[in-house]
Amino acid sequence: MTHHAPSQPLTIEARGPLVGRIAVPGDKSISHRSLMLSALAVGESRIEGLLEGEDVLATAAALRAMGATIVKEPAVAGGGGRAMGTAAPRGEDAVWRVHGVGVGGLMQPAQALDMGNSGTSTRLLMGLVASHPITATFTGDASLSGRPMGRVIEPLARMGADITASPGSEGKGGRLPLMLRGLCPAVPIEYTLPVASAQVKSAILLAGLNTPGVTRVIEPVATRDHSERMLAGFGATITVEDSPAGKVIAIHGEAELKPQHIVVPGDPSSAAFWLVAASVVPGSDVVVANVGLNPTRTGLIAALRMMGADIVELDPRVVGGEPVADLRVRHAPLSAIEVPPDLAPSMIDEYPALFVAAAFAAGRTVARGAHELRVKESDRIAAMAAALGACGVPLEEHEDGMTVTGSSGEAIPGGATIASLLDHRIAMSMTVAGLHARRPVTIDDVAPVATSYPTFFTSLDALTGRAA
Predict the structure, then answer these.
(1) Cis amide bond preceding 17, omega within 30
(2) Contact 175/201 with Cβ under 8 angstroms?
(3) Who is most buried in 184, 217, 260, 356, counting CB within 10 A?
């Protein structure tokens, strides 16, 4: 796995309406978790629709290094491999077969685990290793090595893991590269999340799988629940109860996971770019097939509908315990809103796309409550403020978000060169902005898009009539 491809600058100009039907890659969160839990099951699991971006492939490589057998089989032509009505191929129609090692069966990796740019891989795999009697060194690229790991180090250390991390800024510890020595048996804990983080919650629950007794996580603010759903699906004993302190998620340790057949729904975070693009580019009419609509992930759809977006759910269904539908989105005039702060956890990855929608709305959109954006692949608040500001969008940056004064549907000035800062979501969001700009927008490097959406630009060409 390479740390980063050479820079790929790209200039985007207005192309006219987006029209057609596409499918987005498999959900990144579910793809990571399906590999991890399959690797801990006894027997062979089958995964369809797996996202084949660099982040998920980093997870697969790490699990192979710890003993799991993970093999990709090409899709059979005409074999109907897609489940329940997905109309468009995703490029991920292959079946992945995973032979697991059983809970507690992970083996000592022979070399450092290269996480590339993937914070999800790092934090969740740290949880897996924490309750195994093995030592693993985690490394990553420059962007990942600047991201804080202290929030997951702290609870895993309470469970008995010995973690030596690199110092961060101002002498604070908790960055990659880091070395983690797991403890077996680990110590079950009850832990209240100090910040809303599905990754921290998941790391603790994954550590709890191989820990005797009951490990509990209390989340005062609900976060995405893919781990809980999938753990239950694999046969773990897990309960979720409401309490005055928040949701209490309890996992019973020393579990035995049973292999599964998983169909990964389309990633709502990837669909976000088409929902915004079709909303703001006049004449657009797009169907995005097979989008996962887990209620902990639909904040952007709710916010866009509040702004007046025309988004309709077609053929709603349930696949593998997750709600799914095809989304039809047509161009509509957007009006500014004050984004409800309680939507933040369910759209944290979609804020860059929301800021772009706000740039085309009528009035001043206030989007706050998103401190977490400061510690993503980049400081996404600062990055998007700089990018949109350079394109002539009036805005005010806040510590926890942004206020954006929109163009009332008119094209924004554009004409800027944007720094993507090795962040896939910044690159894709500003590509969308450039589709309705008066002057071309140049993005300094779109190579990071491959981490989550390798076919993004192919889909853009297809929707704008430029397919080869």
Answers:
(1) no
(2) no
(3) 356
E-strand ranges in 331-399 read 364-367, 395-398
Annotated binding site: 28-29, 33, 119, 147, 197, 199, 349, 376, 380, 425
> Which residues belong to the annotated binding site for phosphoenolpyruvate?
28, 119, 147, 199, 380, 425
The CATH number of domain 10-25+265-463, selected from 3.30.70.3270, 3.65.10.10, 3.40.1160.10, 1.10.10.10 = 3.65.10.10
User: Is 349 marked active-site?
Assistant: yes
Nearest CA to 12 among 414, 425, 343? 414
Given the residues 349, 423, 444, 445, the one annotated as active site: 349
Q: What pTM does this model have? A: 0.81
Please list the rounded mean pLDDT of every run of 10 residues in the chain (468 residues).
71 97 93 97 96 93 98 66 34 84 97 95 98 98 90 97 84 84 98 93 98 97 92 96 97 96 94 98 97 94 98 92 93 97 89 97 94 79 97 96 97 97 95 98 95 93 86
